[in-house]
Structure prediction request, 326 residues.
Amino acid sequence: MLTDTYNRIHNYLRISITDNCNLRCFYCMPEESYAFMPNQQLMQAEEIMQLAKLFVAQGVNKIRLTGGEPLVRKDAKEIIRLLGSLGVELTITTNGTRLHHFVDDLEAAGVRSVNISLDTLQKDRFYLLTRRDQFDIVKENIELLLNRNFKVKVNVVVVKGVNDAELLDFIEWTKHTPVHIRFIEFMPFDGNQWKSDKLVTWKEMLEIISKQYEITPLENLPNDTCKKYMAEGHKGTFAVISTMSSPFCSGCNRIRLTADGKIKNCLFSEEETDLLTALRRGEDVLSLIEQSIVSKHKELGGQFSKQFELIDANTLHNRSMIAIGG
Prediction:
């Protein structure tokens, strides 16, 4: 088992297979003309499989595919098929625009839960946030997954003055639709112009929602990153990922592998370890993985404290969200 110095067992691997994306969300991409990694810099399908097998042999039992947008990669179907053969829980986070081309492949690989990023329920605002006219296809693909009995989680990055007025609209959506909404506190990454006054905290969200709905807390598992709730009488549920105002680092079991084969032991870690180069050279990759996990900071990548009001985003050292993989 991959265990750090704080006795946290790491059994959940998030693999980014591309930093490319067909949307341009401001909190994820620093600019419209972003320079994507050349293909030779990316992990190839068999290399992804080799590294995944190594992690599984060390106790990883859940793998999530991320991007960029993972489903824009040309060999995404092959990667999904390969990882589906490992016998672990396989999931994916996607913007939902290409799911109709992959739903059969996901089902065949044993994927039963899909996270879809959708920050607004208004078509015009979707275009403003993503700079692409893809709202209708995302909503249609959510319905497609629900009709195929997938568990659908909708990720909503909440930014004050941008989409915080839609919190109640998302809760209303869960009344007759069995989706799980996950409101995510706005987090600082390279180029996303984060400021503390743009943050809507977990408690502020609950205060807004509880004025309109009677809500009940649901059970949270030890490694959950979110605090789960249900509005009375609703088919769906909702949660808040309170990274900034109430971090959950003590129960973290996550490892991240970037599209260019770097291991990040925390979303906010400045340090990265190059596994891909070592793999291609035939060097000992396992020792690099173990060293990375052992060196993991107690919380928040060691870059800032829980006092989010004091954070100067310009002093943080990290990649943009699209280059990390979320």
